[in-house]
Amino acid sequence: MSAVVIILIYWIGQYFTYQGFIEKQEAFKVRGNVVYLYLSLQGFFINGIVLLLLNFIIVQDFNNQVQLENTRLIAARSQAANELLLQQIHPHFLFNALNILKSLIKRSPDKAEDYLLRLSDFLRVSISGNKSGIASLNDELKLCADYLEMQKVRFGEALSFNLDIQEKESPEWYFLFFSSAAFRECN
């Protein structure tokens, strides 16, 4: 590349000399091939700098692409884990909830009605879902409270809980995941 620049400068100099813009100068005499050695070293030095910069740019671009791909994979993994969790919770939870509702209808119709309302709210939120995947803490806590109240009907006095958390945003199903995981571990 530097050789091309040197040749281009030489041709431009020759053109201006031919046009009369520059007076023709007599070439200076140097012993041996020192000028050629100097120009070769200069060319290697400039080529080396350009190649280092090019290599740096290529490596940075590759690193950026790897980070972007990793971010995409992490997001896809989180989404897949969330969908898997939803698929695991719904059938098992629904069958248990219907069995509990059946037994409540026979024993205590008032509790059965309350349980049915909580179940319907819970299923409405889980089916409709939030498209952004982010829920307010109040919505998430209501979902978790409904779930825990339904589990309290199932476990009776063996389960007690208190929800006292400050307002912020959380990933959807965040608290429910931990609540249901705790019940799976206890059973």
Oligomer: single chain
| Strand tally | 2
Structural Rg = 37 Å
**Averaged pLDDT:** 75
Distance between the termini: 73 Å
**H/E order of the elements?**
HHHEHEH
Structural class: mainly alpha
Approximate shape: rod-shaped
Strand content: under 5%
How many H/I helices?
A: 5
Catalogue the unreliable spans. none
Helix proportion: over 70%
The description of the largest β-sheet is: 2 strands, antiparallel
Fold blueprint:
Layout lengths: L1 H18 L14 H74 L1 H20 L5 E3 H19 L13 E3 L2 H13 L1
Antiparallel strand pairs: 1-2
Helix pairs in contact: 2-3, 3-4, 4-5
List the defining traits of the structure above.
single chain; 187 residues; mainly alpha; two-stranded antiparallel ribbon; rod-shaped
Notes on the structure:
There is one protein chain. The protein has helices at residues 2-19, 34-107, 109-128, 137-155, 174-186; strands spanning 134-136, 169-171. By secondary structure, the chain is mostly helical. Strands 1-2 form a two-stranded antiparallel ribbon. The radius of gyration is 37 Å and the shape is rod-shaped. The two termini are 73 Å apart.
Concise summary:
The protein is mainly alpha-helical.
